[in-house]
Amino acid sequence: xxxxxxxxxRICEQWHCTPVWLRRGxxxxxxxxxxxVAFTRAAARCIQCSLRTAPGIQxxxxxxxxxxxxxxxxxxxDYAFPWSGLINAYxxxxxxxxxxxxxxxxxxNPIISRLLRNADAWVGVPVSDRALSGRGFHQTADxxxxxxxxxxxxxxxxxxxxxxxxxxKAQKALGLHARADNLSGAFMVxxxxxxxxxxxxxxxxxxxxxTGATLTAVTDVLLRAGAASVNTVVLARTPKPDG
Length: 243
Fold this sequence. Notes:
This protein has helices at about 35-40, 60-65, 85-90, 100-105, 110-120, 130-135, 140-150, 175-180, 195, 215-225, and strands spanning about 5-10, 15-20, 25, 75-80, 120-125, 160-165, 185-190, 200-210, 230-235. Helix 4 crosses helix 7 (about 140-150). About 35% of the residues lie in helices and about 20% in strands. The chain has about 240 residues and is of the alpha/beta class. It has a domain at about 70-235: Rossmann fold. Strands 4-9-8-5 form a four-stranded parallel beta sheet, with helices on both faces. The protein has ten helices and nine strands.
């Protein structure tokens, strides 16, 4: 059972009472309810790339002209204040207790919840050995674990479905086209996962989508391995530079 103790909101810095699971190393929410409501208001998003759109517009202009290779996509929040700072603390500063709250943001989004529940199986985007060594944990695998704890009877996860090849540069410093080139041939489907992928409708899960290059590269190898379809779900989507 959790302890309900005072906790300072990581967004507004006001004190609120929150469940804390001491033995599991997690806080259910590192932010208060009013901040969550304020910064997760429903927004119209493209049903494929998850960028914000005008109300009533299902697909952005880019996806209408040149759709990505996955079918549907969804994001819980924008990779912007306050979530960008919290996600950075989670991934790069060892603040792993944030994972449970991030997963809650994802599954409380009705579009994400529907995609997760209707899939035949889940697949997580793998991280590079360099990133894993630097962070000390696999943030996407952690999000999937937290999601599985929070959803009743979730679809199976195909664990270790994917591997990474080569020594690609870090994506952060690269532009749009360079990101795509950097990931060309970067992923592979492990032989042990082929039977679980063939003919199945998959959800591909990642923490952040910046340009969609990683999702595109991984979706490509899943489809070539025989997946019937791939939908994508991410915690955060980086907005367009012009907002």
